[in-house]
């Protein structure tokens, strides 16, 4: 079974990244979580990134705030798809520094980037990548999206009752 690694630069990123962890579990995807700081633990970053594909991971989700080098550095060292989650942190310039650091990667080092604090979408995207070759995960994604549709339809019906 495919696994997703959810990594972040520090424990302060966990409240945002928890949404990726939760949706991956809901969709039936195995997930491992770790703290890997690009600036404070570069040796761990290199080791993790270079070996992730041999450790059973199919996708890496990397969340980071501030300068947000973690997703790009992981992508430069790993052959796996990397999804970056810009995190609005206390040392951030309203989150824009994180967004641009993750989004503006040079050619040859792609990082799929979701919205600021958009970890839930990162989890869904990771599951969709895995679902393209895993029919059980694909079925879970189809059911999840059907549930989203049903929620909107039910909400529309409730509003019509009000007006």
UniProtKB/TrEMBL annotation:
Functional note: Catalyzes the conversion of N5-carboxyaminoimidazole ribonucleotide (N5-CAIR) to 4-carboxy-5-aminoimidazole ribonucleotide (CAIR).
Positions of substrate binding: 10, 13, 40
Enzyme class: isomerase
Keyword Isomerase listed: yes
EC number: 5.4.99.18
Gene that produces this protein: purE
HAMAP family referenced in this protein's UniProt entry, alphabetically: PurE_classI (MF_01929)
Domain of life the protein comes from: Bacteria
Protein known as: N5-carboxyaminoimidazole ribonucleotide mutase
Protein family membership: Belongs to the AIR carboxylase family. Class I subfamily.
SMART domains: AIRC
One Pfam family matching this protein: AIRC
GO MF assignments: 5-(carboxyamino)imidazole ribonucleotide mutase activity; phosphoribosylaminoimidazole carboxylase activity
Domain PurE: 2-152
Involved pathway(s): Purine metabolism; IMP biosynthesis via de novo pathway; 5-amino-1-(5-phospho-D-ribosyl)imidazole-4-carboxylate from 5-amino-1-(5-phospho-D-ribosyl)imidazole (N5-CAIR route): step 2/2
Keywords of this entry: Isomerase, Lyase, Purine biosynthesis
Entry-linked InterPro entries: PurE_ClassI, PurE_dom, PurE_prokaryotes
Catalytic activity reported: 5-carboxyamino-1-(5-phospho-D-ribosyl)imidazole + H(+) = 5-amino-1-(5-phospho-D-ribosyl)imidazole-4-carboxylate
């Amino acid at each position: 079974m495919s696994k997703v690694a959810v990594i972040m630069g520090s424990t302060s990123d966990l409240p945002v990244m928890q949404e990726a962890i939760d949706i991956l579990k809901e969709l039936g995807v195995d997930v491992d979580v770790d703290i890997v700081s690009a600036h404070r633990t570069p040796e761990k970053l290199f080791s993790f990134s270079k070996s992730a594909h041999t450790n059973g991971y199919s996708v890496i989700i990397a969340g980071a705030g501030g300068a947000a080098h973690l997703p790009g550095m992981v992508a430069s060292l790993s052959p796996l798809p990397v999804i970056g989650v810009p995190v609005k942190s206390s040392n951030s310039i309203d989150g824009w520094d994180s967004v641009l650091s993750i989004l503006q990667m040079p050619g040859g080092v792609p990082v799929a980037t979701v919205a600021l604090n958009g970890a839930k979408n990162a989890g869904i995207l990771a599951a969709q990548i895995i679902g393209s070759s895993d029919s059980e995960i694909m079925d879970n994604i189809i059911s999840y999206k059907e549930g989203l549709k049903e929620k909107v339809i039910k909400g529309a019906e409730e509003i019509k009752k009000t007006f």
